[in-house]
Structures
1.
Amino acid sequence: MDSVVDRYKKMALQEEEEEAASIPAVEEAAIGFPVIGQVLTDRKIRFSDLKEKMTSLWRPGKGMTMKEICDKRYLFSFNHRFDMQCVLDGGPWQFERSLIMLKELMSDDIPHKIILNEAEFWVQIHNESG
């Protein structure tokens, strides 16, 4: 009896199927708890610097993976819901003085098509004269 791996080795994509397969897949993100992020800047972002900085800041207890999916847009996949929720609740986050927009990725979302145009901020006002 063939193993699952052996069966998939025998499969081949037709030319018209290859294009669809090259789109960043949500299936990859579905492993764990995925978050889509975008750095709002005109400057070039070095992926390795961003990955090192965010891993250091967020310190996910169960780990995370990070993948660049297009220019200044990244897929963070956390291994535990608690780590993901801490990052989402702990924002806003920044990298090199630029805001990082974050949103939890749902199973039917297409990562490069998600609109990231909102961020929550807390503002505290002191000595307000009424």
2.
Amino acid sequence: MAPYQFQGISVIGKIIFLLNIITYLCIWASLILRFCRFRRAFINTLNDPEESYMIPAAALGFAVIILGIEAYGVPACGEWLLRTQLVLFWIFIALAICIAVGLNWHMYRTRMATRQPFALVRLLPSFPAMLGGTTAALLTPAQPPHLAIPMLIGGTALQGFGFMMSIFILAEFLYGLHHHGLPPMRRRPHLFIAAGPPAFTALALMGMADVATEKLPAHFIPLAAHVNTADVLLVIAVFISIFFWVLSFFFYMIAWLSILDARREWRFDIGWWGTVFPNSGFTLATVKLADLLDSRALKWVGSAATIIQVILWLGCASSTVWAVLTRRALWPGMDEGFGPDQKCEEGEGSDLKGGVHSGSILLKLPSLIGF
């Protein structure tokens, strides 16, 4: 939550939340229609080096809706929705595990990396798991302790798995930058993906540790009988999160410098949405860290990051609508950075009809709108 707010921000949040649900359902309807109309479209999506990595975005969109329900739905609807949230949380956890195991296995089996050299997209199959901790941190405050504690443990487990998986991919990404230089402009907005794992991990650790001070018994670890478990956990979480936040800030600035360096080549395509979702993690982590440290300077940094985030969201949303209306997106040959005079090469998202798959944009958008 932004440290400095204005009157009416809650109303804006509710409007965007409802827009998020409508958009998410419309996207699923479009996907189902596409897969029913073109029977091999789903198999093509699964085996396409551009689209296959975007499948986890559907789970990210589901998580964003769950968080929106907690913020705007539960206060208005009461106890029954609170119980529904518990069920939705565990459904999301199961979905995140299935995607992480199943999709990663599929990528290994098909050697997808040989057709998709951009390392950062390999973070995406494990990205829903990294929202497990963040989701647990936001849902557990309203749950009773006997239900909240398993959620905190489950969120910690998935957060740890997701972050550990990201370390290996980030190492490959940095190696590639050193040896091959910066990617072409159409890939540079995706550089913000690197800022996501450390930021969301910091946010999750601080959030869950903060909740633990209210939900965990004093001596949750039996062998540590002389200290309050939750207090120790909170102190450790805050200082570890500082490490993660600085790492996220490093990737955040590298991405901005890379984009500004190629400003003469700017041209909107769907890849620009990569500036939105990962940066949400950095912004939220900054705000949470400022709150726990009671740092006025960090609060202003969080406010500035929030303003930038809103501008990016509005810019990407309006540009996407205009691109669709002018047939520059969701149109054969026009997605994933292709222009009207450019043709798809093999392995760059072409479908059976020779056009570019629209599924990647359909899968990306739901995870981006709610933040």
